[in-house]
Design brief:
Layout lengths: L3 H18 L2 H15 L8 H4 L2 H8 E9 L7 E4 H14 L2 E15 L2 E13 L6 E14 L2 E11 L2
Parallel strand pairs: 1-6
Antiparallel strand pairs: 1-2, 3-4, 4-5, 5-6
Helix pairs in contact: 2-4
């Protein structure tokens, strides 16, 4: 009987953790972190190695993704997943480095199969001739749940005041 009590407590704690870990809010937070990790390109990596991230990127993007940016006007619009994959491949070849460090989640709202994640990110995109992003940004990601998981459908970022 004495051994049963600690085992029951451990089992209850493990079950509670698993319920928490797989809640939609936690899943979209992890997906957001994964996305930022994929688009972070280290200066020391060669372009071919960088492009391996395209496989992870494919699993994170919806068929059609809407982008809104106050700093990179060419990035505004609605794009097919294949267009964003091509843009990622170009970035892998051209960028000296990119860095996207999530500073803080402001909010995560989940309603049925939609989620909105608002967060602050420290971003750097360093191209050979200029830096289209360098500083702190407020970002909002809209995720849609599909048959194969949560996918990014819209991303909006603005400069942090």
């Amino acid at each position: 009987m004495r051994r049963l009590v600690p085992a029951s407590i451990l089992l209850g704690l493990a079950a509670g953790f698993l319920v928490f870990w797989f809640t939609p809010a936690q899943v979209v937070k992890r997906r957001t972190e994964s996305f930022l990790k994929v688009i972070t390109l280290d200066a020391s990596e060669n372009p071919t190695r960088r492009q391996l991230g395209a496989y992870s990127l494919n699993a994170l993007l919806a068929e059609q993704v809407e982008l809104e940016s106050t700093t990179i006007h060419e990035a505004n619009g609605s794009f097919a997943r294949s267009q964003l994959e091509s843009a990622y491949a170009w970035l892998c070849q051209q960028a000296r480095q990119t860095r996207f460090h999530l500073l803080k989640f402001q909010s995560v709202t989940v309603t049925e199969n939609r989620a909105e994640v608002s967060f602050t990110v420290d971003a750097l995109v360093e191209l050979p001739n200029y830096r289209p992003a360098d500083g702190s940004y407020q970002a909002v990601f809209h995720w849609h749940e599909t048959h194969d998981g949560w996918r990014l459908a819209k991303a909006r970022w603005t400069t942090q005041p």
